[in-house]
Every structure is written in C-alpha cells, then in structure tokens.
C-alpha cells in the first residue's frame, strides 16, 4: 500500500508538521526495527506471540526487527498497542519536539499545498532516497569500523588496581585506523602516574604480548593488580615523577599483558546512527548462527 496523507495513522500525532515529519521518519526502517525489538523484549513477548496478536507471520516480525521490511502504515496503531508504546515513542519524540528551522517550515509549507497525487510522488521519492541512504550507511560502517574487546575493569596508572582476569567486558566498535586495527583490547586508565602522556580516564589500545622491549609502555599484572607503566630492566616506571619505580624480584608474580599502542581518539566511536546500524548487523549475524 502506498502511504498517503489520509492513510497515515493519526493517533496523538496531530499537527501537519508532526504528520509529515513522522511520515518521513517512518521510512527509516532500520531505526524502527530496533525500536520494535526493544519494545517487544521489554514487554516480555517473543516474535511468534507478537505475530499472533497482529494476525501476521513470525517472518514479518523478524524482517521488521532486522530492517529488511517495515510494517504497513495501517498496522502501526495496533503494533504500538501490542507493544505498549505510543505513536510518539514509536516514531521518536525528537521528530516532534525539536525546533523546526525556517528551511524545515518552508519545505513543510510547500508540501501542504501539493495535491494528493504529488504528495505521493514526494513520499515515494523520499522513501527511495532514505533507502539509498540506509544502504550507503550500512556499507560505510561495514568498511570503516573494527570490533575490539573492551575490558571494563580499569588498569592503574598509579599504585595498582585489583584486576579480575575473568574476561569481564564487552565488544565495542571503533573507527578503523592503523592502531585500532592492530589492537586486541581497549582498557581504561585509572590514575595520574603516566601523565603527561596518559591521563586518568583515557581509553588505551592494547596489543597482546607476553613481553615488551625496554622503553615501551605496557599493561602488567602483579599479584592480582593491574598497572600501565613503562618497562625498563630495573622495574616498571611512571612518567609522573612523584611516583617511584616499581621493583620486582624473581619470586614476584609479574606478567605482561601487552603493549600500549595508542589512545582511542574522541572521534573513533560511532555516532548514534552508526551504532544503531552496527547493532543491527551484529543482531543479524547472531540470528544467522
């Protein structure tokens, strides 16, 4: 069914600007797949149960959630009711609450004066453009992001932090560059002993290694505590002069985790839209397996 102004679900979307903005936003099917999936999980129902409520097939629901298809406009009110969410929640409050620019108002005003037939032409054109944009975004994130393990336990640049080596952490995505592609893990620095080179809260890129060369900065575990220090034959050195050298003897349980090869740049993390696309790709990969 081609969407028309009359067929678009009104609900609590009342103004002309809201209706047109919601219609435009509707075509971003990847975004709404994530919203449907999150609301369904929060409601505590599975895909077959949601399909039965809506009198549709489980495959349709699955395709909505991974962004392969979108629900018909006339199904959206019932879908929102089944998920226990409002139309505003489904389409995103930002669509209706952010202030319109003068250019937005000009475009919406022009749209208002179009005939019904011409509105359908514009709607189809927007749908095509948004589909192309979504495909381009997917291609971009597939080619430009690297998945890296993030250890959520901080490693001390100070006197030492207890380090649980039980594998606590999550995989994150970072914009790929030479260092990110070489990194095995990301660890957060705690403390100021490596200033001015590393600061408290910095996320560092770590390449796993059993040993590093003198002068290299690495991550070490000593008696259950994690450190980020510069390795020298006489011990582990801080770059902040107020901290002493950590000396160890042969009986101490000291192990090298890896070398620090860089700091995660501020712009390395994906934008909200890029992250949503990466999440969808990961969800699709999990479904295939």
From TrEMBL:
<dbReference type="InterPro" id="IPR039418">
    <property type="entry name" value="LexA-like"/>
</dbReference>
<protein>
    <submittedName>
        <fullName>Helix-turn-helix domain-containing protein</fullName>
    </submittedName>
</protein>
<dbReference type="InterPro" id="IPR001387">
    <property type="entry name" value="Cro/C1-type_HTH"/>
</dbReference>
<dbReference type="InterPro" id="IPR010982">
    <property type="entry name" value="Lambda_DNA-bd_dom_sf"/>
</dbReference>
<dbReference type="GO" id="GO:0003677">
    <property type="term" value="F:DNA binding"/>
</dbReference>
<feature type="domain" description="HTH cro/C1-type">
    <location>
        <begin position="36"/>
        <end position="90"/>
    </location>
</feature>
<dbReference type="Pfam" id="PF00717">
    <property type="entry name" value="Peptidase_S24"/>
</dbReference>
<dbReference type="Pfam" id="PF01381">
    <property type="entry name" value="HTH_3"/>
</dbReference>
<keyword id="KW-0804">Transcription</keyword>
<keyword id="KW-0238">DNA-binding</keyword>
<dbReference type="InterPro" id="IPR015927">
    <property type="entry name" value="Peptidase_S24_S26A/B/C"/>
</dbReference>
<dbReference type="InterPro" id="IPR036286">
    <property type="entry name" value="LexA/Signal_pep-like_sf"/>
</dbReference>
<keyword id="KW-0805">Transcription regulation</keyword>
């Amino acid at each position: 069914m081609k969407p028309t102004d009359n067929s678009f679900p009104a609900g609590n979307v009342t103004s002309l600007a809201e209706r047109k903005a919601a219609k435009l936003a509707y075509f971003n099917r990847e975004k709404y797949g994530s919203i449907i999936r999150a609301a369904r999980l929060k409601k505590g129902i599975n895909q077959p149960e949601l399909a039965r409520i809506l009198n549709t097939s489980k495959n349709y629901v699955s395709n909505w959630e991974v962004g392969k298809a979108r629900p018909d406009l006339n199904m959206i009110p019932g879908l929102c009711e089944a998920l226990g969410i409002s139309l505003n929640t489904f389409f995103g409050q930002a669509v209706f609450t952010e202030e319109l620019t003068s250019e937005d108002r000009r475009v919406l005003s022009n749209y208002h004066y179009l005939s019904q037939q011409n509105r359908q032409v514009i709607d189809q054109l927007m749908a095509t453009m948004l589909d192309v944009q979504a495909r381009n975004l997917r291609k971009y994130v597939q080619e430009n992001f690297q998945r890296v393990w993030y250890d959520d336990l901080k490693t001390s640049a100070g006197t030492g932090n207890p380090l649980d080596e039980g594998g606590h952490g999550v995989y994150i995505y970072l914009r790929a560059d030479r260092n990110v592609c070489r990194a095995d893990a990301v660890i957060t620095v705690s403390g100021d002993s490596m200033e001015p080179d590393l600061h408290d809260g910095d996320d560092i890129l770590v390449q796993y290694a059993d040993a590093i060369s003198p002068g290299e900065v690495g991550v070490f575990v000593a008696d259950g505590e994690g450190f980020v220090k510069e390795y020298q034959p006489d011990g582990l050195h801080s770059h902040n002069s107020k901290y002493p050298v950590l000396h160890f003897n042969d009986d101490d349980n000291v192990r090298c985790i890896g070398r620090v090869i860089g700091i995660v740049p501020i712009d390395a993390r994906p934008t909200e839209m890029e992250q949503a696309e990466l999440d969808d790709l990961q969800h699709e990969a999990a479904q295939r397996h």
